[in-house]
Amino acid sequence: MIRDLTHLSGSKDEIVFAFYLFPAQTEDGGVIDCVDIYKQPAFGDPLLKNHTIQMRPSDYPEGKVGKASPRSVQQTWQKSGSCPEGTVPIRRTTKNDLMIRPVYPYISGKEYENGILEVAGASVNNRQYYGTTFDVGVWNIDVQSNEFSMAAVFIANNDNWITVGWKADGGHKTGCYNLLCWGFIQVDHTIVLGDFLSSVSTYDGADYYLPLTVYLDRTNNKWWLGIFDVKWVGYWPLHIFSNLNGASRIHWTGQVLNTESGGYHTFTKMGSGHFSSEGYRKAAYFANMYVMDDKNTYQQPYGAKSYASRPGILLKIVSVMEKAKLGKIMLFKVTILTKDGDIIDCVDIYNQPAFGDPLLKNHTIQMRPSDYPKGKVRKASPRPIQQTWQKSGSCPEGTVPIRRTTTSDFIRPMSPYINGKDNQNAIIEGAGASANNGPYYGSIFDVGVWNVEVQSNEFSMAAVFITNNDNWITVGWKIMQSQFGDNQTRLFTYWTADGGHKTGCYDLLCWGFIQVDHTIVLGDTLSPVSTYGGADYYVQLEVFLDHTNNEWWLGYDDKWLGYWPLNIFSNLNSASWIHWTGQVLNTASGGHHTFTQMGSGHFPSEGYRKAAYFRNMYVLDDKNTYQQPYGAKSYATRPGCYGIEDITYDDSDNGNHFFYGGPGVGITCP
């Protein structure tokens, strides 16, 4: 029975909370008040004095329609009664609600007085967003005292965000959970914010999830919250935010507050409490994530990236999911933790970073070139070089493997330059060969792979540059601790359209390169490598312009890795120069030349199996035919430190070739 208590405070206009009250507590001990819709906490805001409540949005987005979960998630209070229309159900505040300021959810890892926020999720931040719709699995797990575990979406712009609750200015003075203060205007009389969900997923059993929607109705300036098919729970008026006319980023994330009691990581669980390797019905998920664009249409979250603040603890492996059931699962199907500490995400091929470029919105990926050059055929090396991650797993077709970004990746590393270039107190030393009788449309070559000593904050590399003025593509191997976090030899690519000033990046750290191969990771380690006087390991690389589709293609041994669309460059319809070169960044620490080595670390005079080489170099002419690079000239910026020999043309397996490199500081290199 529900009892009407509005008479206790006189006329309706005098009542602070005009409500109907359950005479008894709910099953879980909560008390739910059915409050007159115009007497809910939001109307404590003076700006809402004459506000007329809107019961549903004026302009619903196109492209997605919410639907009820096949296993309905109930709230515990619904077993004890219901609230009539014209009221909204509000969980009765407790002493804890009023006296203890809760730890508010933050978007990324944040330190507190006695704890830190651990996170694992995915985010998009490459344009303006006006909402999102998604499904999130619902679980109940072990949580340590004074900590929490959650799964939520953050719609954020600077210090303003909504996370199914609302917040402005970073939670310092404004914002609250649910209806604990003015802000959110509830219109639905069946959902209680802050109440228990009675149906949750069970390990290897029933799967319960919530379809949720948060979006900006720009007709009436309201951020709406929807659930199920679509039940509109209510809205946040736009004026309560200082800067949320749109969102600069959206996060779908699991979070745990870790107090690190006793010096150990908390036992509080995230998600289902099981690693993502266990897959559907065992691991937690976000699925069917879409973002709303400026045309009021839901789109795939192209360019979204996954992250984890403690990947060794919170995220290991995400198993292959069934698309028909779960759609886009965190934007990747498989995640692999490699033996050398890298994390490789197997990302849906249409969700890779390149699709953050608006020009690629309707792009259809091409899996191989349309018009292959004449005169040379790539083949696999007789001694194949593996990548370390391949020993730990593989990515399925339909995905591309992407090395997970780290803090070092976000500290913009030095762009590779073609010739010696001053960089404050450092200079790039080069030794190689160049051809400048173009135009050229590509190059194919072999490069020996080595691992050498590299000083901290410096690099050593061997690469080709396909260049025209300030536009270039660079491909090869590189050792750089400050960029990669170790001194391993790694495959890398780089592109720029303005000399590295504002455009371009390494590998897949930004839009640009479209990868199509599911077996090779750009930025991952190469193993094994050549040894002095011992085994010779090399890779065959190719970069050429497919004129039919205007794409610069990258080949690796007998594989096509992907391509750079021609339209990302300002002037690379052909190359005026091609350079095959070794390079070292020399910081001249202590006033001496660096001891960072180039090539094999030995001078070119020592020859095959001891000195590094480029060989079988060919350039692509305007007839789409590979030719010898006649007229190419060798050069060295500091020949006493890093040497070079002239190009030799012969009919052996080495073809045209040169040896290069050196040890750095020494008798001839003070």
Description:
With about 675 residues, the chain is mainly beta. The chain folds into 2 domains: about 5-330, no CATH class; about 350-415 and about 420-660, no CATH class. Helices cover about 5% and strands about 30% of the residues. It contains 5 helices and 39 strands. The strands form 7 sheets. Strands 24, 29, 31, 32, 33, 35, 36, 38 and 39 form a 9-stranded antiparallel β-sheet that branches. It is elongated and about 90 Å long.
Task: Give the helices and strands, then pairings.
Blueprint: E1 3-4, E2 19-21, E3 32-36, E4 87-91, H1 95-99, E5 116-124, E6 131-137, E7 149-157, E8 160-162, E9 166-167, E10 185-186, E11 209-217, E12 222-227, E13 231-237, E14 249-258, E15 286-292, E16 298-299, E17 305-308, H2 311-314, H3 323-326, E18 332-337, E19 343-348, E20 386-387, E21 399-403, H4 407-410, E22 422-423, E23 426-435, E24 442-448, E25 460-468, E26 471-479, H5 481-484, E27 490-496, E28 505-506, E29 514-515, E30 526-527, E31 538-546, E32 551-556, E33 559-565, E34 577-586, E35 612-620, E36 626-627, E37 633-636, E38 643-644, E39 657-661
Antiparallel strand pairs: 1-2, 2-3, 3-4, 5-14, 5-17, 6-11, 6-15, 7-8, 7-14, 8-9, 10-13, 11-12, 12-13, 15-16, 18-19, 19-21, 20-30, 22-23, 23-34, 23-37, 24-31, 24-35, 25-26, 25-34, 26-27, 27-28, 29-33, 31-32, 32-33, 35-36, 35-39, 38-39
